[in-house]
Amino acid sequence: MSQLIGLYSYWIVIVLMMAGLYIMIARYNLVKKIIGLSLFQTSIFYLYITMSKIEGGTAPILVEDADYVYSNPLPHVLILTAIVVGVATSAVALALIVRIYESYGTIEEDELKAIEAAEPDA
Amino acid sequence: MFATSNPICISDEIADMFIAVTIALLITMALTLARALLGPTLFDRLLAVNSFGTKTVLLIAVHGFMTGRPDFLDIALVYSLINFIGTIAVLKFFEYDDLGSGAYQEDDF
Amino acid sequence: MDTLIVLVLLTFLAITAIGIIVLRDLLGAVILLGLYSLTAAGAFVVMDAVDVAFTEAAVGAGISTILFLGALSFTKHEQKPRGHDSWVALIFVVVTGGLLIYGTLDMPHYGSPDSPSQTHPELAVRYVQESGSEVGPPNIVTSVLASYRGYDTLGETVVVFAAGVAVLSLLGLRRRRPEDEAPEDAPGDIPAADPQDNPRRNV
Amino acid sequence: MLDWLVWGVSWILLLIGCVFVVTGAVGMIRMPDLYTRLHAASVTDTGGAIFISLALILQSVFVFGSAMAAIKVLLIMFFTLFTAPTASHALAKTALLCGQVPLGVDGKPILDSPEEATLLARSRSVDYKSGQDAVEILEETRRHKRERVQGQDDDGDDD
User: Fold this and answer.
1) ipTM of the complex
2) CA nearest neighbour of B54 among D42, D29, D92
3) Out of B15, B49, B75, whose CB is closest to C57?
4) Of chain B residues 33-62, which have a CB less than 8 A from chain D?
5) Pairwise CB contact (< 8 Å): B75 & C50
6) How far lies B88's CA from each of B75, D44, D92, D119, in Å?
7) Could you tell me which of C54, C77, D18, D103 has the fewest CB atoms within 10 Å of its CB?
8) Residue from A90, C31, C38 nearest B82 by CA
9) Is the domain of D14 the same as that of D77?
10) Of C182, C162, D111, whose CA–CA distance to A84 is shortest?
11) A1 vs C21, which has greater pLDDT?
């Protein structure tokens, strides 16, 4: 039972990660792929934040003359950076998708491949 | 096993009170999530998401009191605003099929 | 109680992720992604990462949703219906997940105080004990972000700036292009809007 | 004495809040169509939020002794009170505009077609200008439609 509770958060992280990966592999729609990418990113955030938590700890904001246990602040910093960079990545990907749609009229991967195969010069 | 991590010693009666509210909120969130997944139309999903956001705000506020550090209510504040803005943005998208257009009044009404 | 809340919120997250996989409608998937971010941020608060929760609420639930909506307003709202899901992908994902779960069996348990990430003398203990006197602000995350790891933050800013430039160069010049170029091969030509694309008709 | 009073009042407020919150969620699952679910959700969003926030304000003033926390909870309550009804209204209006037909008491749609719902949602400014009732507008358009259909039938007969 303690094994279950102690590791449950990791398992959920893996489920989320695999959900994102499955969307990236098995769905043909490009916007859906970016949604899968976001899922994958958030699961990584989770993995880090889970590791920073300490039992009975509190948020790493110092309080004078009190003896608290603080959670590890370093993963929080890394994830703060990662969230912002992740959204920047999504923004660029979505902009590319908009351009692809304007050029080809579709955002389904297999249709794009068919169009590419039909006109090798382009 | 599920002992409250309780850095500031708030008394047990008070902790009980917040635990009860937290459980009620979690049940509510589960039901709301079910509606968001079942919802036949997009509006049902949107309604569920909006309601879920309000529950999250309350959960964060109550959690701050439960752990004895009510310093982090700012997050709940930001949440309630973001939640509203997100809902309105999606609705505007439904209504005009665009996020940026401002010239809809003449032909719409 | 904290652990219970975290476990329940994590379960919500997993259910939402499954829902996103199943849903064919892209707008619905984006709405569920907003719900996912809200839940994630709530769980971050319970796991003591208040700054991360703040950012995730503003960036993940706010900006990200609006970016997706903006992209969808230029493209189609529905995935093409397909007959079957790919069994190869499913098997691959299940096998990878199984291997990863096997790998977690050796991980330190959730919240355990003697895990390496809590006991490292330079990376955990020192920040907590010394940052108040070395840097100043009571929020340790701020100290680490702006002082100990200031170059990381500078790099992040550069990445965001580069992304902004990239998005602008992809989309911002588009409005001028149909006038500049010859009309027959204008790549900025938006295909005529199909009335079926309007969400009013297919919600 | 004061401690016990605060404790009791907080418990009562929180319990009322919990009841509101849970009933609203159950209503959201069980109600038959979008507009009734909206009704149920509004109960949760405003009623539950008010009572829970009031209890939290009591706690933060009397137990935690933190005026700042009380002000923040008050702000959360005010924002919720402003934004939740606005969001509900916008949701209902957009749903009507997009052609979601409400169900009547007997479980049947009260309008003939999604177009009529769109029309009703858009007739708001006409309503303000001429003082027309929504039902009148609806019947007028139905009459117009019928006449138009008959006119087309007559044309067909002529051909």
Assistant:
1) 0.85
2) D42
3) B75
4) 34-35, 41, 43-44, 46-48, 50-51, 54-55, 57-58, 61-62
5) yes
6) 20, 19, 12, 21
7) D103
8) C38
9) yes
10) C162
11) C21
Helix (H, G, I), strand (E, B) or coil at B35: helix
| Interior angle at CA C148, CA C143 and CA C154, nearest 5 | 95
Q: Tell whether D12 and D61 lie within a shared domain.
A: yes
User: Do residues D91 and B47 make contact, with C-beta atoms less than 8 angstroms apart?
Assistant: yes
- D53-73, pLDDT tens digit by residue? 998 888 888 877 778 888 888
Structural domain of residue D146, as residue ranges?
A: 123-158
CA distances from C166 to A85, C173, D105 (A): 14, 11, 55
Task: State the Rg of chain B over Cα.
Answer: 19
Same domain, D149 and D74: no
CB contact under 8 A, A59 and B72: yes
Q: How many angstroms separate the Cα of A63 from the Cα of each of B9, C95, C137?
A: 15, 46, 11
What dihedral do alpha carbons A13, A15, A18, A19 form, nearest 10°? Answer: -110
Residue type, A100: I
Residue C62 structure tokens: 């706010």
- The reply to whether CATH 1.10.287.3510 applies to domain A2-56+69-118 is yes
Per-residue confidence in pLDDT tens, chain C, 203 aa: 778 888 899 999 999 999 998 888 888 898 899 899 889 988 998 888 888 988 888 888 888 888 898 888 888 777 777 766 778 888 999 999 999 999 888 888 887 888 887 887 777 788 888 877 888 888 888 888 888 888 888 999 999 999 999 988 888 765 544 444 444 443 444 444 444 444 443 33
Helix (H), strand (E) at residue D84:
helix D67-97
What does the alpha-carbon distance between residue C139 and residue A77 come to, in Å, rounded to a whole number?
A: 11
Task: Based on the fold, state whether residues D8 and D84 are members of the same structural domain.
Answer: yes
Total count of domains within chain D: 2
